[in-house]
Amino acid sequence: MERVRHLQIYHMPAKLVNLIVGHPATAAGLLIVGGLSLQVCLLVLGGIFRLFAERKRASLEGLRLELEIKRAERQIRSAAETSSAWNGYRKFSVAKKVAETGDTFSFYLKPHDGKPLPAFKPGQYLTFQLNVPGEGKPIVRCYSLSDCARPSHYRVTVKRCPPPEKSGHPPGAGSSYFCDHVKEGDILDVKAPNGHFYLDLEQERPLVLISGGVGVTPMIAMANALAETGSARETWFFHGTRNSGDHLFKSHMASLAAENKNVRMHVCHSKPLAGDVSGRDYQHEGRVTVELLKQLLPSSNYEYFLCGPGPFMESITEDLRSWGVSDQHVHFEAFGPASVKRAASPEAKVGVTFAPFGGLEVTFAKSGQKAVWQGEGRSLLELAEEARVKIDAGCRAGNCGSCLVAIKSGKVAYIGKHGADAEEGSCLACICRPVTALVLDA
Ligand SMILES: Cc1cc2nc3c(=O)[nH]c(=O)nc-3n(C[C@H](O)[C@H](O)[C@H](O)COP(=O)(O)OP(=O)(O)OC[C@H]3O[C@@H](n4cnc5c(N)ncnc54)[C@H](O)[C@@H]3O)c2cc1C
User: Fold this and answer.
1) Is 175 a pocket residue for ligand 1 (Cβ < 6 Å)?
2) Nearest CA to 243 among 101, 104, 106, 98?
3) 332-351 pLDDT, tens per residue?
4) CB of 237 sitting under 6 A from ligand 1
């Protein structure tokens, strides 16, 4: 009785208490069956958990392997890039010429020697030496690679450079030659891909690509490279153009956005055509501005890549700086003379010994001209042009080597990074400034 009361204290149902007390053997049997069932249940559950954990581990392992394979592929590509790059000019034949818009053409180039093509970094460019009739000597021009690396060919996209309004000058020599004369089957002299403006595919930091007009070419190479490598990197692509008549790679950009969830495409039309439809042909009326970026981006914390006309880049870089974006996160390419001013770096001020008259005298010995460099951001090439001294120029970014000039006396400093070699006693005038009074062999 005492035991019954004890069990009831623990609120066991009366029937169960009676069963245990009245039929101990049955109760024991039930207990054993219950215990066994519990064990079976635990075993089954344990198995299911193990199976899930196993699957998760396998899928994580799969992901890790995939990443390893991609990294290995990139390493192989970059090894191939270095091993099959070439020095000087190599012959390429024009395999295909495609009209992108009325005044812009894409050229698909294959190596004439049939040997492998080095890969390149998306954003880099090719340097061409063109024999333009009437120019007297070959001219050197750079054009960005407008697609990511493909094993069979390179692609560049050239827009005819119109003369400045009411200037009476002829249109651009190199771009007109490409658009009007270069045809399929022609052979061109091309330097290996080069340039410091490129997207590092190993990085994961979210991106903002901003282009204006034909400045879209390196951005297409970058966006294509991201899509080809299956990157999930958050990417905002802002492109400014007048209207759909000028919109380069319009359908390709729409496919990029439709097929890659991580790519958010925003096209701005400054002068939409009557038939252009908002939401279909463009997302915003007006220009690409930092105001627009502020409305759309969750923060300013991105890596920015810019390419477009000078004033467009100047205003965007300036406004990004005001928004608190540091210069180290803003990368840009100028298709002409670089006009974007970086915040003055401490090194830029070091070592300049100004003459008593407040500037540094630069003497162009061959042409018998003199000019004074006042410490502003201009290069020696720009100074020479203002003094009407002819120095050849191609990329204006220190890569093509066209503006190499011998220094007869004095010292120079480099304003930016350069790809071309400048032997001792010479300098690349497009990215140099004087440090002392100078005498140049120009
Ligand atoms: C790294 C890099 C990448 C580039 N990528 C591309 C690209 O992908 N696509 C592209 O289309 N371009 C690109 N460019 C620009 C390209 O290299 C050329 O600068 C552009 O095509 C103009 O060259 P041009 O020979 O046609 O013009 P130029 O002959 O150099 O003439 C330039 C301008 O000067 C005017 N001009 C002519 N004669 C005179 C005169 N006597 N006085 C004053 N002005 C005159 C012309 O009308 C023209 O407006 C890139 C440039 C660089 C540096």
Assistant:
1) yes
2) 101
3) 988 865 444 444 443 333 33
4) no
Residue 353 banded pLDDT, cuts 50, 70, 90: very low
d(CA 394, CA 381): 11
How many angstroms is it from 173 CA to the middle of ligand 1?
7
Residue 273 C-alpha to ligand 1 middle, in angstroms?
27
Residue 281 contacts residue 269 (beta carbons within 8 Å): yes
Each residue of 269-303: pLDDT tens digit?
999 999 999 999 999 999 999 999 999 999 999 99
**Of 217, 243, 208, residue with least CA distance to 148:** 217
Query: At a CB cut-off of 8 Å and minimum separation 6, what does 189 contact?
Result: 89, 90, 91, 92, 128, 129, 130, 138
User: Which residue has a Cα nearest atom 30 of ligand 1?
Assistant: 172
389 by DSSP, 3-state: which? coil
pLDDT tens across 181-208, in order?
A: 999 999 999 999 988 899 999 999 999 9
Report CA(143)–ligand 1 centroid distance (Å).
10
CB-ligand 1 contact for 158 (6 Å cutoff)? yes
**From the CA of 196, how far away is ligand 1's center (Å)?**
20
Picking from 437, 439, 402, the residue whose alpha carbon sits closest to that of residue 89 is 402
Would the CA dihedral through 240, 246, 249, 255 be positive or negative?
Answer: positive
Q: Facing residues of 99 across strands? A: 105
Q: What is the DSSP letter of 300?
A: S
* Residue 110 near residue 95 (C-beta atoms within 8 A): yes
Q: Are 397 and 338 in contact (CB under 8 A)?
A: yes
Structure tokens at 399: 């890569």
The CB of 216 under 6 Å from ligand 1? The reply is no
Residues 6 or more apart whose Cβ sits within 8 Å of residue 424: none
Determine the distance separating the centroid of ligand 1 and the alpha carbon of 174, expressed in angstroms. 7
* Tokens 């495609």 found at: 98
